[in-house]
Design a protein that fits this description.
4-stranded mixed β-sheet; 18 strands; 17 helices; alpha/beta
Length: 518
């Protein structure tokens, strides 16, 4: 069996869904995108006297039935990379910060394109970070209207991993779709083998903005999977109680899922979210608050009842540096996400209310995520039932170190972390410099960056990618200069080959229409 987590009874989930369906049918959503609103009306959805679009229960239920229960995400070369569905868990860097915590100086500063390229190259080699995200803005070194495409360019040319991304403007998606299509045979091939998930943010207060509506249409029509991500603020725009907040959250997500299925039935959609609590005393919005994490796993339980793939913002910290708070919040939420079976967990690398990204924290989080994934692997007998032979051997030899059972199973059963996690004795730790976690993580960043293996991009494709980005510039003439990767040094990883994550490996055969593999 697989270790799991249950926070809502089946009866309570049904009551939450009934409440959400009632709100959708009788209160509806303020759909500010004129094209989306027209598409919904043409599909037969009614409006109330104030112009709010109503979502009758039968329409929502048909949309849920048409949404795939799982789908495959492919890498840049078109190979299956991640199978999102059932309880298969994938950890992904968080999005979208404004600053980086410079691991060389300790300064939290505005990020730039050099920082972003280093982030992509680092993530490319992390085993437990399944795919990329456009983790932080590069701020003033690129014009805002093409900054989303510029970040996608740096991902596509420095790693073959898929990427969680999104458009910053109402009309940003088509440009980014054109860029991704350069790595596929045609638009149909991109639809069949998607390499990205785009985030669609529900605005809150039962409203979808113009940007979110148009981005949703463009993504779904192009075949780009989307994650519907309400920022549910408990105590501010949603109830402070878990059940009430789950109802509010479910309303926002089901509206997005329904709109996606109206545009194109069968479009892959993740039931997602980025909840936070509203801290009444200091007016902050912690995403690592225990109540926000409770809401995460509660709405995931609702999504699983509906048979939908899931996303959440977890495995992160509201702390300011890589310290005890950051470690505790990240490990606690990563383990909760793994136990809940969240398919796409956004958060590793993030600090300070998702405002600051840290490369040192990312390599630390890679280890944390690996341990969480190791914990939720299937528990089953592995040659240890019946146990009498092992009992006899330990009585005879006084140990099991050289037992065949130990030799057969320790490489997969024991998780051996990289040097960022300290597991030596105090004497050896002192001799090695008595470095704390932050220092070890900083050293690990530089070690891994030095080992980065550059990937090749067809020069013709690279030229076209640059042309697409330049076509959106208004005044800027020169694009930021990106660092050239140095000759890679061998990465001497003491745990290499011992931490393979079977949950991340896609299984051959199923498509997004066929549901999860059995």
């Amino acid at each position: 069996m697989r270790p799991s987590l249950n926070v809502l009874s089946a009866d309570l989930i049904d009551r939450i869904l009934d409440e959400a369906m009632d709100i959708l049918a009788n209160v509806g959503m303020e759909v500010r995108g004129p094209v989306m609103r027209q598409r919904l009306i043409e599909a037969g959805l009614p409006q109330d006297a104030a112009g709010r679009v109503l979502f009758p229960r039968d329409v929502v239920e048909r949309a849920i039935a048409s949404a795939p229960s799982s789908f495959l995400l492919y890498d840049r070369d078109g190979n299956p990379h991640a199978d999102l569905g059932a309880d298969r868990v994938h950890f992904v860097p968080g999005s979208s910060g404004l600053r980086v915590l410079d691991h060389r100086t300790g300064e939290a500063r505005l990020a730039n394109s050099t920082d972003f390229v280093e982030y992509v190259r680092l993530t490319d080699g992390l085993r437990n970070i399944a795919y990329l995200a456009t983790a932080f803005s590069t701020n003033n070194d690129i014009e805002a209207q093409v900054s989303d495409a510029w970040r996608l360019y740096m991902c596509l040319t420095n790693s073959k991993k898929p990427v969680v991304s999104g458009a910053f403007t109402e009309h940003g998606v088509p440009r980014m779709v054109d860029m991704m299509q350069l790595f596929r045979g045609d638009r149909a091939d991109l639809l069949e083998r998607p390499m990205s998930i785009f985030t669609i943010t529900a605005t809150g207060n039962f409203r979808y903005s113009e940007d979110s509506c148009q981005n949703l249409i463009d993504c779904v029509e192009a075949g780009v999977p989307v994650e519907i991500v309400p920022v549910t603020l408990m105590g501010l725009i949603a109830p402070v109680t878990i059940v009430g907040a789950t109802v509010f959250h479910t309303v926002d997500v089901l509206a997005g899922i329904t709109m996606a299925q109206v545009i194109r039935p069968g479009a892959p959609v993740l039931f997602g979210g980025a909840p936070a609590t509203f801290h009444m005393k200091i007016a902050s919005s912690p995403m690592a608050a225990i109540e926000a994490l409770h809401l995460d796993v509660a709405y995931v339980a609702v999504a699983k009842k509906l048979g939908l793939p899931t996303q959440s913002y977890m495995a992160l910290s509201d702390g300011k540096v890589l310290d005890a708070q950051a470690g505790a919040e990240t490990f606690g939420s990563a383990l909760l996400a793994a136990l809940a079976g969240v398919n796409s967990v956004s958060g590793p690398g993030m600090l300070d209310f998702v405002l600051v990204f840290s490369l040192a924290k990312l390599v630390f989080d890679d280890e944390i995520c690996g341990q969480a994934l190791h914990f939720v692997r299937e528990v089953k007998p592995l040659g240890d039932l019946p146990t009498r032979a092992l009992v006899d051997q330990v009585i005879t030899d006084q140990h099991l170190i050289m037992a065949q059972h130990t030799l057969d199973h320790w490489p997969t059963e024991l998780y051996l972390p990289a040097p960022v996690i300290e597991r030596d004795n105090r004497e050896n730790w002192t001799k090695a410099g008595a470095r704390d976690t932050a220092q070890r993580a900083t050293d690990e960043v530089d070690r891994r960056l030095a080992a980065y293996q550059p990937i090749e991009t067809d020069p013709a494709i690279d030229t076209e990618l640059i042309r697409i980005i330049r076509s959106g510039l208004r005044e800027q003439v020169d694009l930021p200069i990106l660092p050239v990767a140095a000759e890679p040094r061998p990465l001497d990883d003491p745990s290499a080959g011992r931490r393979h994550n079977p949950r991340r490996a896609p299984r051959p055969g199923p498509t997004s229409q066929e549901g999860p593999p059995s």
